Structures are given as C-alpha cells and as structure tokens.
Amino acid sequence: MKSLLKATVAAFAIVAAGSAASAADVKACFIYVGPIGDFGWSYQHDQGRLAVEEQFGDKVETAYLESVPEGPDAERAIERFAREGCNIIFTTSFGYMNQTLKVAKKFPDVKFEHATGYKTADNVATYNSKFHQGRYIIGQIAAKQSKTGVAGYIASFPIPEVVAGINAFLLGAQSVNPDFKLKVVWVNTWFDPGKEADAAKALVDQGADIITQHTDSTAPLQVAQERGAHGFGQASDMINFAKDAQYTAIIDDWAPYYIERVQEVLDGTWKSESTWDGLAEGHVVMAPYTNLPEDVAEMAEATEAKIKGGWEPFTGPITKQDGSVAAEDGVALDDGAILGMNWYVQGVDDKLPQ
Amino acid sequence: MFEAVLLTVITAATPLLIAAVGELVVERSGVLNLGVEGMMIMGAVVGFAVANQTGSGTLGVVAAVAAGMAMSALFGFLVLFLVANQVATGLALTILGIGFSGLIGEAFIGVPGLRIPSLYIPGLSDIPFIGPVFFQQDAIVYLGFALVAAVAYTLFRTRLGLVLRAVGDNHTSAHALGYSVLKVRFLAVLFGGACAGLAGAYMSLAYTPQWVENMTAGRGWIALALVVFSSWLPLRVVAGAYLFGAVSVLNLHAQAHEMVNIPSQLLSSLPYLATILVLVLISANRRLTLVNTPACLGKPFVPDR
C-alpha cells in the first residue's frame, strides 16, 4: 500500500493510493466521509479495507479517498474512482446516496456499494449494520447505571439511522426504568471533536451522567471521563480514552462484509442486494463490558444473546412521541419501518428536526 | 448553570482568539496568510506528539509554537522573498498542514493525550463563580489574553507598532523612510505562525486532549474571518471570538435544555448569521473601516535593488 499523493483542499482531503499500472484482478475503492484517523466511523471502514488487502493479497488492489464532503464534491470523487478503473466502489456515508446513484448510471459496468442508504439500482447495492441492536443494550446499561436518570445523546443529523439509534437507546433504557429521560443535542456534524466535547459538557452540566453519541470522535467520552460521567464507545473500542468511563462500545466490523463482496466480484457472482446484518452475523460487535457491576454486565450479555437469537429490539408495545401506536404488543417493526424511521418514541425530550 | 456555560465558552473561544490575534498582526503588516488552519493543525499534532513523547505539556506547547513558526517561515520565504502569490501560497500552506499533520500523527491515533494542568490558587480558586471562571483556567487561556493586551499595546502605543502599521499601510513610504519592509513583514508572519501553533496546541492539549486528523475542523478559517470581523482591532478580536464561542456553545446548551425549543439547524447557523450582521454594521461606517484596513494588505513588495 503506497501512498502516492496526499493533498487536501480546506475540508476536502484526498488520499489516492496504489499504483496506476497493476496486475490486480479487482480494484476495490473506498470513499470515506471523515479522516481515517478519526478512530471512529471512517477508521473502522478502513480497517475493513485493510482486511480485504490482507485476505486477497496481490489479487485485489485497493484505493481510498478520505474526508470527502457529502454532496456535490462526493460526485466528483466517486466519478474519479469509476474512471480510474475501480471495479467496485464502496461509498461509506449516508450523504453519498444520490451521488452514488448518479455516477452508477454513467458506469453500468462498475459495482457500487452504498453504506447506510436505501436506494439501490442494478449496479448499486446497499449495506448497513443493525447498530440499533447495540444501542438497545447500551440503553439498558445506561438506565441501570445512571444516578440522575438522565442520559445525554449527541446526535449528528436527523436521518433515519440516527433517529432509530436514539429510539432504540431509549426503548432499552425504558425497559429498565420507564421514567428514564433522554436529552438530545444535534451538533449537525459527523466529526468535530471540539464541538462534540462542548455538547458533552453542556449535557453533563444539565444533569446527564451518561453520555452517548452518534458522532465519530472520542471527545465526548473523554469529557465523560473527566467529569466523572460514563459513556459508550462509538464505532470502535475507545477504552483507551476513557478507562473508567466506558461501559462498552458498539464496534462496527465491516471486514466480513467487504471480504465477501470483493470475493463475489472476483467470482463474477456479485448482485445488487440490500444487506442489513447485526450482532448475530458479527457486523456489530459489543466491546467487553467494563466498569459495570456483575449483574448489569450479565443483563447486557443476556440481551445480546437474545438479540443474536433473532429478537428485534423494536418489538411492541411502542408508542410514538405524539401518542400514536407504532407497534402493538409483541409485534416487531419490519426492516422498512426501522430504516425509514422519522419519529421519536415517547419519552424523548426533544423535538425531531424536520 | 451560567458558570458552566461560561466555562465552556472560554474553552471554545480561546483557540479562535489566539489564532486570530496572530493573524491580525500579520495582516496589519500587509500580508494575508490564509494558511492559519494549516499552521494550527501542525501545532496541534506536533504539540501532541512532543507532549506524548516527553510527558511534558510545556515542551509540547513550545514545540507547537515552533512548528507553527516553521510553517509560517516557509510561507514568509515564499511570499516575501520569492514574491509568490499570497492567496495561493496560504491555501497551499493549509493543504500542506492538513496532509502533513495526518502523516506525522498516524502513530498517535487512538493514543490518550496529556492535559495541560489548570491553575489553582488556594483561596482565590475556591471563590464561587469567580474562582472557576478567573482562577482555574489553564496557562494558555491567560496567555491568550496577555497576547491580546500586548498586541493592542504594541500596535498603538509603541514605535514598533507604528512601524508595523506603516509597513502595512504604505510599504513604499515605509521603505523610503528606511525601514526594512520585508524584515518587518517576515517577523510579523513568524508571530502569526507562533500564535496559530499555540492555538493548535490548545486544541490537542487542553480542549480535547487527543490527536485525530483534521481536529481543528475549520477553526483556522473562523479565526481568519474574525480578523475582518474585528476590523483589525485587537480588542474586537476578543469580542468576536467570545461572541462566536458563546453562540456556538449556547446552541448546544439550549438544545439540552427542555424549556427551549428552537430548531437546531437555526441555532447552528447563528454564529455565521451573527458574523454577517456585524460585517454589515461595520461596513456601514465606511470611514472607520477604511482607516483600520491595512491599505497594502495582500500587495507584494519588491524593493529596488
């Protein structure tokens, strides 16, 4: 893996890797929304890419672009990869959805894989992980461990995946403490350690003693550590940043999926699909339960086992924030309802930005 | 509650303040350095790396200042002595800083950092409200204010400041009077680099003690905007930095507070709306703006040989 060019324009950083003339059978390319050094979302995708390199050796060449802003810039980045002879392009953020589809139309022979989106085409597959399964578990832990009965949630953008995460967290918490309160702060960014830290401070100052996040940096957990609050790692195991504060982390493990899909391209069996796997398939992994009393860790493990056994955290009774019924007792929401979630469950102390 | 908000505002405003006051001096000398973000991020990574290796926050800060100065020396050499285009060179400096910091910082990703200790004066620091706000900050916060005071004094009350402003306002006349325009500008550029490096160190050693790529997240650009916002007056930089910090922090506090119900997108855009508003108000008084704008800002100077 040779890095030939490292150039960045303001917030637009480009890293192109690999040599132009190569004997590899397949070129797999990745577009990341953050820097691979974020130790969160993009870092984990890059770990998946490295796993692909390790698995296939000379047969597969990889390349990546990091810190590609969502929106029109992404289209240029994706198109550049398509022109450069990439056979399969993984676009790893929700905001690349329309750009991915647009470029895919122009390059019917290139395979596209869009993470966390919901639009597919003949050559565009989508993939995502059931992070909400992990969020249900950490919600339960939060309710057990919180002394104030209030948790703070640092949210990025009001897209279904994030909303579902908030709901799953609160449902988990309510299963332990029906009166549990959740404060949500939208920072409108995926990655800004300073702003995330400020949000965490604001939440702690307003009584939250559990901080959880749907943004990519380790800063909120660090604030939790300093302020004597607790929290959960996001995307990767962040225990090094918060030895006393992290209870567990929801780890994204993209390696199995990337290896599988690249193998399919090699074999010529690749098809457009929507993949949505979770704890059971190993795409979502819980970091070791630490800093917890034994009974709470056992509860978390039991819930994890139950979810791995096929139980859906979004199983009724679920009441929406406006009081209407989302799911009757014992009825689980279907995948479409979870992937398109645009409502809060009852008990969220926030109005969903529209 | 108010105290908690204020404490967060101080940490949010400090890096902006320090980087902006440095850039203000640079622009007062007639040079536009758009590379603040790049110098800042280099300061952040070098400060973190040195503090991490030596275990000393002070050494980290010193190294960060040196890194910022090294970056600015490169910029100064290119635009002053080789008369390269200032805008392009400044942008290139940012690109270089972001890329190079990522390279240096690769080994430090996921490594917990070191926090600069905060001041503690027995008695004073324990006074409610006043103690935590005024007597429990880290050294860089105080250094930031000292810098602003020193810059304000030097610019308007000393001969050195007069020379600096003369060079920025009319380099030909300053040259004719026998002042070395390039030397003054180079020193100003170095000062700007040192400040940007210090601001970077604040990010990686005090604000969020860790290294992650791109962690300055555009604060260098905000600092640049603050210089214009302040119409090149040091004390207004403080007002601007705190206004900007306050509005962005209040946004987060308002959201966490159940009584307030304002769309978060609107709150997030408030700092920028405030900037536009102030710019409109400032430019309404055209005479004042012209008086304070360095007339030779961005114009290259080539002495007759």
Question: What would your notes on this structure say?
Answer:
The complex is a heterodimer of chains A (354) and B (305). With 354 residues, chain A is α/β, with parallel strands linked by helices. Residues 1-21 of chain A have low confidence and may be disordered. Chain A folds into 2 domains: 3-129, Response regulator (Rossmann fold, 3-Layer(aba) Sandwich), CATH 3.40.50; 133-252 and 287-349, 3-Layer(aba) Sandwich (Rossmann fold), CATH 3.40.50.2300. Chain A has helices at residues 41-56, 72-83, 97-106, 131-145, 160-176, 193-205, 219-227, 255-267, 294-308, 335-339; strands at residues 3-9, 12-17, 26-31, 60-65, 88-91, 111-115, 124-129, 150-155, 181-186, 210-213, 230-235, 246-252, 274-277, 284-286, 318-319, 325-327, 348-349. In chain A, a hairpin with a 5-residue loop joins β15 and β16. In chain A, the strands form 4 sheets. Chain A has a 7-stranded mixed β-sheet, sandwiched between helices. Chain A has a 6-stranded parallel β-sheet with strand order 4-3-5-6-7-13, with helices on both faces. Chain A contains 10 helices and 17 strands. Chain B has 305 residues and is mainly α. Chain B has a single domain, classed as ABC transporter involved in vitamin B12 uptake, BtuC, CATH 1.10.3470. Helix content of chain B is 73%, strand content 0%. Chain B has 13 helices and no strands. Chain B is globular, with a radius of gyration of 20 Å. The mean pLDDT of chain B is 89. Chain A: Keywords: Signal, Sugar transport, Transport. Chain A: This is Simple sugar transport system substrate-binding protein. Chain A: Residues 1-23 form the signal peptide. Chain A: One of its GO terms (cellular component) is plasma membrane. Chain A: It holds the Pfam family Bmp.
Which helices and strands appear, and what pairs or packs with what?
The complex is a heterodimer of chains A (354) and B (305).
Chain A (H helix, E strand, L loop, with lengths): L2 E7 L2 E6 L8 E6 L9 H16 L3 E6 L6 H12 L4 E4 L5 H10 L4 E5 L8 E6 L1 H15 L4 E6 L4 H17 L4 E6 L6 H13 L4 E4 L5 H9 L2 E6 L10 E7 L2 H13 L6 E4 L6 E3 L7 H15 L9 E2 L5 E3 L7 H5 L8 E2 L5
Parallel strand pairs in A: 3-4, 3-5, 5-6, 6-7, 7-13, 8-9, 8-10, 9-17, 10-11, 11-12
Antiparallel strand pairs in A: 1-2, 12-14, 15-16
Chain B lengths: L1 H27 L7 H19 L2 H25 L4 H20 L24 H6 L3 H19 L1 H11 L1 H6 L4 H27 L11 H11 L4 H23 L7 H21 L1 H7 L13
Helix pairs in contact in B: 1-6, 1-9, 1-10, 1-11, 2-3, 2-4, 2-9, 2-10, 3-4, 3-9, 6-7, 6-11, 7-9, 10-11, 10-12, 11-12
InterPro entries (chain A): ABC-Purine-Binding, PnrA-like
Pfam families (chain A): Bmp
Organism (chain A): Roseibium marinum
